[in-house]
Every structure is written in C-alpha cells, then in structure tokens.
Amino acid sequence: xxxxxxxxxxxxxxxxxxxxxxxxxxxxxxxxxxxxxxxxxxxxxxxxxxxxxxxxxxxxxxxxxxxxxxxxxxxxxxxxxxxxxxxxxxxxxxxxxxxxxxxxxxxxxxxxxxxxxxxxxxxxxxxxxxxxxxxxxxxxxxxxxxxxxxxxxxxxxxxxxxxxxxxxxxxxxxxxxxxxxxxxxxxxxxxxxxxxxxxxxxxxxxxxxxxxxxxxxxxxxxxxxxxxxxxxxxxxxxxxxxxxxxxxxxxxxxxxxxxxxxxxxxxxxxxxxxxxxxxxxxxxxxxxxxxxxxxxxxxxxxxxxxxxxx
Length: 310
Hints:
42% of the residues lie in helices and 15% in strands. The chain is an alpha/beta fold. The radius of gyration is 25 Å and the shape is elongated. It holds the Pfam family LysR_substrate.
C-alpha cells in the first residue's frame, strides 16, 4: 500500500478531533470518557505519524497545520458516525436543553407537531436554569443543542467552539392580573408611577432597571414585591395577584387572550416596545450540522416566523 495513504488509528483521530472541539486535553478526555493521559498519548502518536506539530504548546490551541487537518477530517469522521448509525438502524435522537419559561410555555406545546413531522426522531427536552456548559464533563456527549436567553447587557463572552443563531428578540413589557390591577386602582397614569407599585423580580432587580432605562425613566430604587428567581415563577405570582411581572410573548402562552393577565398601559405615557435580549440556539461546531439538529433548527425558526414573534 502506498505509504501516503496509510490512515492513522481511529482512536488517535477521535482524540485529536475531541481536543480540537473542546480546546483542552482534560475536556477532550471528559467528552470521550477516557483518561487524559490516553488523549495526550494519542495526540503525541498522531503528530509523530504525520511528521508535523498539531498543537501549539504556547497557546494550548492548534497550529495552522492542526486547524487545517481538523477541518479536513471532521466531515469524514461525521460520515463514519452517520454510516454506523444507519447500519445499526438507530433512530436519530436530539437532546435540547432550554430555559424553563421558553420550554414550558412556548416550545413544549409545539413539540408534538415536530414529532408528528419526524416520527422516527427521538427528541428529549430538558429544562434547565442556565446556559448549558457544553465543555463540562459528560455534557457534550449528552446534549446536542441549548436554547438560552442572552440579555443585551451580558458581559460573558460566547464560549469557544460554539455556533449559534438568534431565534427571536421579543419585546418585554409589564403584566398584571385583573385582581392586581384592581388593587392598583386601575392603570397607572405614567410609567414612572410603576416605581410605587409592587414589582415582582427574578433573581435581582436588573431586568426592571434595564426596562425603566429603556423607557427613559430614572429609577433610583426598584420596589420589590418578592424575588422569585425565574421569569415563569414571577408570572405565576402575577396570575395570583401578587404584583406586576415583566414578560414577553414566549412566556405568556394564552394569558393575554384569556384575560388571566393584562398588559400595563399607562394612560399618559405609552410604553415603547423594548427588547432586552434574545433567545439563542447554540450547539458545538461539530454538532451544528447534525442532521437531526438541522431539521429542528429549521423547524424552530419557521415556528417563530409563523407566530410573528421575531
């Protein structure tokens, strides 16, 4: 056999691909569920086999040769994985983590339609409190995609090795139950009047403070009717008449149509449509073109467009 076409061991190629995806030997070991010494050995053997340096020891990343090699072999490794799954006659599966409110009030009621359109695909939806740490031990192997809410004031950079697409930037506005509105004595005259109303907060007052800033209302102190950690819990408290909550169309379900909740509409200072962030779908670079995820991503964006919630 021509020596130029001798392929390195698959274990070494998998170790290198995992290292390139995750950006670290220990993270690669966690993804593949092997000892980190095995990853180091595979990388060393692969470099010796190829006769070139793949890792930049100074930065901990890839050399230019390493980046080129990773780009070239990844489609072939993915093709092997797909071919193996087909031979085993495995149904495609998709695990999506998602912030609670979006999962419960918007995505879950629509998943049945996706399953009907793709009956051979297994979909697991896992509501979580925060963005999925894709490079944490075990996570990358178990989670294909994550739907999170990213506020415009976020300072945490997007982790390396992730692809993302904005699902929607919904407007945020205050809502109250009919009983809660009656306790206020009716709709306020101005936005500033809300600074004297019972405001339901999530983990802190940041969301309200950003909202008042967007309405051009100076807010020294934000009155609190309770801190309830998550948006869908503040909405439950608002339905119970405990105060005013900030919300968006993805969290409200049919609350406005049924009258369980009402929009706050100041009589003299109309509210401005105010997005404070975006719902974002994220996945690793390797998983972004996964067939199941591609179908789900296209369906999800179509659902948002059809609902006129962009």
